[in-house]
Amino acid sequence: MRTTHMFIPTLREDPGEAEVISHRLMLRSGLIRKVAAGIYSYLPLGLRVIRKVEQIIREEMNRIGAQEVLLPALSPAELWKETERWDFYGKELIRLQDRHDRDFCLGPTHEEVVTDLFRREVRSYRQLPLTLYQIQTKFRDEIRPRFGLMRGREFIMKDAYSFDQNEEGSRKNYQSMYEAYHRIFTRTGLQFRAVEADTGLIGGTSSHEFMVLANTGEELIVFDPESSYAANVERAEVVSDMASHPVEPPQPLKKVSTPQAKTVMEVCSVLDTTPDRLVKTMLYRTPDNSLIAVLVRGDHQANEVKIQRHLNIHELTLADTESVQAATNAPTGFAGPIGLHGVKILADYAVGGLSNFIVGANEANMHYVNANRDRDFTIDAIGDFRQAQSGDPSPHSLAKLETARGIEVGHVFMLGTKYSEKMGATYLDSQGTEHFAVMGCYGIGVGRTVAAAIEQNHDDRGITWPIPIAPFHVHLLPVTHSESVQKVTQTLYAELQQANIEVLLDDRDERAGVKFNDADLIGAPYQVIIGDKGLAQGTIDLKERKSGEKTTVLPSELTKHLQEKIFKQGNIS
After folding, report:
1. Statement to judge: residues 229 and 247 lie in one domain
2. Residue at 391 is within a domain
3. 477 and 333 part of one domain
4. Global pTM value
5. What is the domain range of residue 506?
6. Are residue 264 and residue 210 in the same domain, yes or no?
7. DSSP string of 494-526?
8. Counting Cβ atoms within 10 Å, is residue 183 exposed (0-12), middle (13-18) or buried (19+)?
């Protein structure tokens, strides 16, 4: 393709709206353009990358026997009400009415629609297992769309759904999809980890997220350096260490003054202690409008997902200032478990093993020291209620957990019969007995994968694409308009195309510096620089974009040289 024939509106300056590297570089290199908050147009270069990711996904889905379908983006409210997600999904669900005032939504995911298809068309065990997938635009009314394609209101997703006779078959399908995802992200040239995750709004019994490792990632994951264990901090298991705390004789409870000391560090400063000797009392409001108190150590963070799971609820919000005042008779920052009446109290394992610790006194500017559970207050339940962090013991070895940041690009779920039971999706076994289908669902954010690839592959000049998903493999850069340069350029352009090497020829009437800057910004894995000085010696320059390494080659040997690099290193057939 010739640059003069392509729509590539590159930008010299960083757009003010871009907050992360991928957003900035996708705008600057002319891959996308903003239409509205969280809504983007894919321009020619960007769409080429999207299509390459989609092709890899299709090949791996087809490889495991999944069948491609295309389900409607618009779905009736009745299906969502059957699963009770019409209200449960919340404000992220984009709802609308047709001219007859019937309720619809733009699908953020398609469990309801595909389960409805199954219950209408599948009757017998002979039709199972069945896995259907699609690559389609999805919609979510994000409260704060940001980071370009990372968190949008309209996005491209591959979603797949499996139906099996039983749990054993479903686990095999899950494992098959799990392995397919490993191949997909390996083929796209990304560094990633599969981590245990919470099932969230999708629901189900278990799930894994596929995280592209990047310092700019929104998600924090923990992993065991000595085993395959990894999990996001919402899901990561924290091993009980109650028995490891030294047993101290209980000291007399004492109320002390802590004027204006509301935060952990302020209290520690006033009382000359460390955060691990202080216990925070977090007050939450549950869906039935009751209050609960969660006790975590001062150097730990409460994990609301784990708390919700323990209470078997789907929503949990921090109590507002008025609620805290009403429950504790004190301003925010001085809540504590002693004398806290009518409130269920949960305590994290790390708190359960403490003695003689510090808590709020439910009185302005006051704290208790030498508090002890059972003697001074009663705990309703002790469990894993905090976020895992670096240095925690691994649940799978003797190692300590380490942390990394990641970008979620894929998620696989074992749904069980959550949707099939609610929607009556059944099949008949060989004896004519009716059973609910056991389901799984599996998603990949196509646009997020592209953005994550840029977060992982860039430098201060632009994108450094992995070969398999680069918009072009090679950027041809003639630096003068001399007859010899133009002749060699046209010959190489034809040869590379004939060899199925995707090549972008910069045939613009621009200075060499402009061409080099745009080439580095766009990020094709290889640049071929053709100039009079080199041709006088019978050579041209081949530059590897990522490393910056330059090689002098003969024009006649370029195509063979690039074929070896692109089709072997890039794992492209």
Report:
1. no
2. no
3. no
4. 0.84
5. 472-569
6. no
7. HHHHHTT--EEE--SS--HHHHHHHHHHHT-SE
8. middle
Single-letter code of the amino acid located at 373: R
Nearest to 387 by CA among 281, 307, 318: 307
Total domains in the fold of the chain: 3
Could you tell me if 376 and 424 lie in one domain? no
**What's 560's domain CATH number?**
3.40.50.800
- The DSSP-derived string for 74-104 is EEEHHHHHHTTHHHHTGGGSEEEE-TT--EE
How far is 554 from 485, CA to CA, in rounded Å? 14
Distance CA 448, CA 150 (A): 5
Is 122 within the bounds of a domain?
yes
Per-residue pLDDT 10s for the chain (573 aa) are: 999 999 999 999 988 888 899 999 999 999 999 999 999 999 999 999 999 999 999 999 999 999 999 999 999 999 999 999 998 888 899 999 999 999 999 999 999 999 999 999 999 999 999 999 999 999 999 988 988 999 999 999 999 999 999 999 999 999 999 999 999 999 999 999 998 876 555 445 578 999 998 888 888 898 888 888 888 887 788 877 665 667 789 999 999 999 989 899 999 999 999 999 999 999 999 999 999 999 999 999 999 989 998 998 878 999 999 999 999 999 888 999 999 988 999 999 999 889 999 999 999 999 999 999 999 999 999 999 999 999 988 888 888 999 999 999 999 999 999 999 999 999 999 999 999 999 999 999 999 999 999 999 999 999 999 999 999 999 999 999 999 999 999 999 999 999 999 999 999 999 999 999 999 999 999 999 999 999 999 999 999 999 999 999 999 999 999 999 998 765 555
Assigned domain for 202 exists = yes
* Residue 125 is assigned to a structural domain of this protein: yes
Q: Determine if the peptide bond prior to 145 is cis (ω within 30°).
A: no
- Burial classification of residue 95, based on how many CB atoms lie within 10 Å of its CB (0-12 exposed, 13-18 middle, 19 or more buried): middle
The counts of H helices and E strands in the chain are 16, 31
199 and 328 belong to one structural domain = no
Strands (E), 20-142: 32-36, 39-42, 67-68, 74-76, 94-97, 103-106, 130-139
Same domain, 147 and 74: yes
Is 221 found in the same domain as 258? Answer: no
The CATH number covering residue 172 comes to: 3.30.930.10
Residues 259 and 232 in one domain: no
